[in-house]
Backbone:
């Protein structure tokens, strides 16, 4: 009887199990019977659950693996929630700090961009955040003052035009047969010259391999000077063909250029390359201009390619560009500042736009006196007139580094002191010996 009951139970179970699978595994189709606890951590699925599989194959699911996956997913979700909560709290704290600073009357800018706000959030302490806010306010005030000056200049120009127009009795500008030269036509003319310089112009290389030698502010100053140099070169009668060598894409220099120019960066008539200037030009034509070079530049050579190091350092690191030129085995030269200027104490380093204006004037005129007028007057006491001095006198002046007037006064005072001492010590002839 027991054997018959077991056989009947198995038959009913086989018949009802497919119906239970199709009907959603309802409880009424299951027949429970007491059984021993199984220690295995896997389920053996019937081939009816997998229609694509063969009748004799079974699939095994590892429960421990599934538990590990579920736990890792839950941990990631909790970590994301914690990071979001931290970010929200930091964001709220920075906003509260800005509002409180404004209410207390401290230095806070009126407009803050997204990049500036991200930098502000990354500041670790409140004092650093306040210092950064103060820096942004100073920067905003400078920009506002520059805009006001520009607006005042425009007003002055308009008033001058009105005064010139009132010179006639009718109150209209004077009639002339010359056509007016508009600003758009000027821009097209300058662009055309710059395009011609890329084919026929003399190359001028800016070495951009000094990213690691400068801070972020010094790099921004260097880019500002290069922007001014590009504007001056574009308006010249015979502009140079600029080459920005060693400029890495998405590097620090490239990011500052994109921030400065914006969409106009792709429209510049400038050759930009990641290659070194040694790979682009022949080595025998390159001349590296550096203030530390022992060789003095006498004349401007039109068949040479001059290199200017794009380095702006307030600490004045000596020998950096000279070491770069020696490492590449290049010829070096420096400007003859001592031969033409009464140079005072200090380094003979010039800005990038000043170097460009000096080279452009030398290229057009070949006159060192005209070219060195772009050197700031605060750095020297005036020009030396070679006709008034001999070679020996010039050499002594270079060694002493003292102007002629002071040396003459010193000589006269020394001679007067010697004569006075001699007269005091000289024995008078009418005095009797004691």
Residues:
């Amino acid at each position: 009887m027991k054997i018959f009951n077991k056989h009947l139970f198995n038959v009913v179970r086989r018949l009802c199990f497919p119906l239970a699978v199709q009907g959603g595994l309802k409880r009424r189709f299951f027949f429970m019977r007491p059984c021993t606890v199984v220690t295995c951590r896997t389920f053996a699925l019937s081939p009816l659950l997998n229609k694509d599989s063969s009748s004799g194959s079974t699939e095994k699911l590892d429960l421990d693996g599934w538990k590990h996956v579920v736990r890792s997913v839950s941990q990631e979700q909790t970590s994301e929630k914690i990071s979001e909560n931290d970010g929200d709290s930091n964001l709220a704290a920075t906003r509260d700090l800005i509002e409180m600073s404004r209410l207390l009357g401290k230095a806070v800018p009126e407009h803050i961009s997204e990049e500036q706000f991200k930098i502000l959030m990354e500041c670790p302490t409140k004092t650093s955040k306040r210092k950064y806010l103060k820096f942004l306010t100073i920067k905003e005030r400078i920009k506002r003052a520059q805009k006001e000056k520009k607006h005042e200049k425009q007003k002055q120009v308009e008033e001058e035009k009105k005064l010139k127009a009132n010179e006639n009795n009718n109150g209209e500008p004077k009639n002339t047969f010359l056509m007016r030269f508009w600003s758009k036509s000027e821009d097209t003319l300058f662009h055309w010259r710059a395009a011609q310089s890329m084919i026929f112009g003399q190359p001028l290389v800016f070495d951009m391999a000094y990213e690691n030698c400068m801070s972020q502010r010094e790099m921004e100053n260097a880019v500002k000077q290069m922007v001014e140099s590009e504007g001056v070169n574009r308006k010249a009668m015979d502009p140079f063909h600029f080459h920005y060598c060693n400029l890495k894409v998405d590097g620090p220099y490239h990011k500052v250029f994109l921030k400065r120019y914006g969409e106009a960066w792709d429209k510049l008539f400038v050759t930009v390359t990641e290659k070194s200037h040694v790979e682009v030009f022949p080595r025998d034509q390159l001349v590296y201009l550096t203030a530390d070079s022992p060789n003095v530049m006498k004349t401007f050579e039109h068949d040479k390619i001059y290199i200017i190091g794009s380095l702006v350092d307030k600490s004045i690191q000596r020998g950096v560009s000279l070491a770069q030129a020696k490492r590449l085995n290049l010829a070096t030269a420096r400007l003859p500042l001592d031969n033409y200027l009464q140079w005072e104490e200090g380094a003979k380093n010039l800005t990038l736009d000043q170097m460009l204006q000096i080279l452009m004037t030398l290229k057009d005129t070949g006159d060192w006196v005209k070219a060195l007028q772009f050197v700031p007057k605060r750095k020297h006491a005036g020009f030396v007139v070679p006709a008034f001095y001999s070679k020996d006198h010039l050499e002594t002046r270079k060694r002493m580094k003292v102007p002629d007037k002071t040396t003459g006064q010193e000589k006269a005072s020394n001679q007067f002191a010697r004569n006075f001492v001699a007269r005091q010590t000289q024995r008078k002839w009418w005095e009797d010996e004691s």
